[in-house]
Amino acid sequence: xxxxxxxxxxxxxxxxxxxxxxxxxxxxxxxxxxxxxxxxxxxxxxxxxxxxxxxxxxxxxxxxxxxxxxxxxxxxxxxxxxxxxxxxxxxxxxxxxxxxxxxxxxxxxxxxxxxxxxxxxxxxxxxxxxxxxxxxxxxxxxxxxxxxxxxxxxxxxxxxxxxxxxxxxxxxxxxxxxxxxxxxxxxxxxxxxxxxxxxxxxxxxxxxxxxxxxxxxxxxxxxxxxxxxxxxxxxxxxxxxxxxxxxxxxxxxxxxxxxxxxxxxxxxxxxxxxxxxxxxxxxxxxxxxxxxxxxxxxxxxxxxxxxxxxxxxxxxxxxxxxxxxxxxxxxxxxxxxxxxxxxxxxxxxxxxxxxxxxxxxxxxxxxxxxxxxxxxxxxxxxxxxxxxxxxxxxxxxxxxxxxxxxxxxxxxxxxxxxxxxxxxxxxxxxxxxxxxxxxxxxxxxxxxxxxxxxxxxxxxxxxxxxxxxxxxxxxxxxxxxxxxxxxxxxxxxxxxxxxxxxxxxxxxxxxxxxxxxxxxxxxxxx
Length: 526
Ligand code: KIV
Ligand code: ZN
Hints:
By secondary structure, this protein is α/β, with parallel strands linked by helices.
């Protein structure tokens, strides 16, 4: 069976989209999951975009051993030098060079003639080739480029040493028939095409990213660029889970396979959503809560008689557990550890100890602990997004007074570096009062408040509340999460974590200490 390479760009195309910024710890966590999932190539970032991006690409290159690691670079020597500097220690480094080839982009964005673009593409692929044998070239906005010119550029890139040619549908404009025909045309009519791997990179503006990627594969592409949960510019990219499960579920038609361990899909999706402070829409294919739910009587009857009546893939195949076992305060460490193992968690002894400690605390407040609770506890105790920033503010205690006929008042005591500070504030409701009291102590820099989400982990009024707060400053987002059966406590912890992250970013970039403000990040669309 022929292999389709999975090129994951969650950490580049995904991360550069609004509300999806990740810090270094989180990017490493995602890269590790991608490695475990067995993706072939990780696009770790756009190294020249900012010093932070450079550092994360380099750290991922240093730490990931089982995947190719690449950085994006424009057709400019400085970009390529920086990309190489960042990926050169990878087990299998790649440089990904791109330049736009559509009339609109060449005239208005690049202000270059087609001949100049052709010359630059060749020269910069040759330049990158001096560093690295593994070179990917992308003619940006390929699907709106003149086909004959596009083929000349692709031929030039191949002649100069590109080993993978990626065809991006940058603005999600194309249709499946067109995508398939385009790949077939290029493969059939460009000199040297038989010696390189063709790739597709589809955006989802018209909701056709997965269909277009699959069509590209049917046309002969053997690499697909995609992201976890379909994150990415505007409406996003082809989602990894959709394209991988489409190739697998319709192997009868594609005759192809990927190397992905699909049982990691659920975990990868959840981790990425946790980091960016979102949850999957209920009906999202593969990873939404309802993706495998059968609500109507007719469907339930069919599924009970034979699962295949309404199920084209099993929940287990994407790592969704359907046997909801309930644990409680009499369950021991061994039972909890075993259940976690069955749920697919591989924890170190220390992580299991921390999770078991939290499990016992939750048991005091909640009678039955479901798999969803257990999953939330592990995520809370092991995911980077829940962790405290070193030296940050921590909640000592809070006291709240609220009613439907008085203004809410909250007193908060916070601890930082062994010192305790307390303040009191009024607010339009208890959360506003608590956040005002926190602001009075922390005095954070100006920020917008973009997301405040509370969701319950399981059913029942004693459920764990999972709170996400996202604040925005310096053109990036800072997310904090809090988990507790007391939603006020969870809300306070979530806000503190988001603020701690913003403060730690400021420290790192010398902001508020008379230093430089951080350089604006360059994005691939600039
Ligand atoms: O959408 C696009 O064209 C891209 C390229 C830089 C590959 O992301
Ligand atoms: Zn893109």
